[in-house]
């Protein structure tokens, strides 16, 4: 039996102020795919500076108002360019596709769904790759 997963909220972000900050990149919403819901109009992706014991590759922040809210660490997956994280204390799964060549980030936000199982994450990423690559 094939596993089914909820359809993610998919938002694509384009980097602004390219090269202005050394370890932090700021992005603005460029496109909202397959639905009208927007996670955030601005996001910030910062390189991990080893302050947390969890050691994510990046830190992701949203800017819903005029203040940055740190949401999650983004951790490497077995698939290049794809990172996983969670939102709101493991209530929602986040998968990010970071494209440093085109300076874009695509966020896949699985509302009310979370899994830390590596096989499940790999299966979800494989499905996303077949749709969005």
Architecture blueprint of SSEs:
Elements: E1 9-16, E2 24-33, E3 42-47, E4 58-62, E5 69-76, E6 82-87, E7 92-99, E8 104-110, H1 118-132
Task: Write a concise synopsis of the structure shown.
The chain has one helix spanning 118-132; strands at residues 9-16, 24-33, 42-47, 58-62, 69-76, 82-87, 92-99, 104-110. It is mainly β and 133 residues long. Strands 1-2-3-4-5-6-7-8 form an eight-stranded antiparallel β-barrel.
Tag the structure with descriptive keywords.
133 residues, single chain, 11% helix
Overall shape: it is globular
E-strand count: 8
Q: What fraction of residues sit in β-strands?
A: 35-45%
Could you report the average pLDDT, rounded to the nearest whole number? 84
- H/E order of the elements? EEEEEEEEH
Radius of gyration: 14 Å
Distance between the first and last residues' Cα: 25 Å
Let me know the largest β-sheet: 8 strands, antiparallel, barrel
């Amino acid at each position: 039996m094939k596993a089914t997963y909820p359809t993610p909220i998919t938002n694509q972000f384009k980097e602004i102020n390219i090269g202005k900050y050394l370890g932090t990149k700021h992005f603005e919403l460029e496109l909202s795919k397959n639905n009208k819901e927007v996670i955030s109009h601005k996001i910030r992706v910062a390189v991990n500076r080893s302050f947390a014991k969890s050691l994510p590759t990046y830190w992701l922040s949203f800017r819903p108002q005029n203040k940055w809210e740190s949401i999650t660490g983004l951790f490497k997956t077995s698939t290049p360019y794809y990172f996983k994280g969670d939102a709101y204390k493991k209530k929602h799964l986040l998968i990010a596709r970071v494209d440093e060549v085109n300076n874009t980030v695509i966020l896949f936000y699985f509302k009310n769904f979370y899994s830390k199982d590596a096989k499940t994450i790999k299966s979800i990423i494989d499905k996303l790759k077949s749709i969005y690559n």
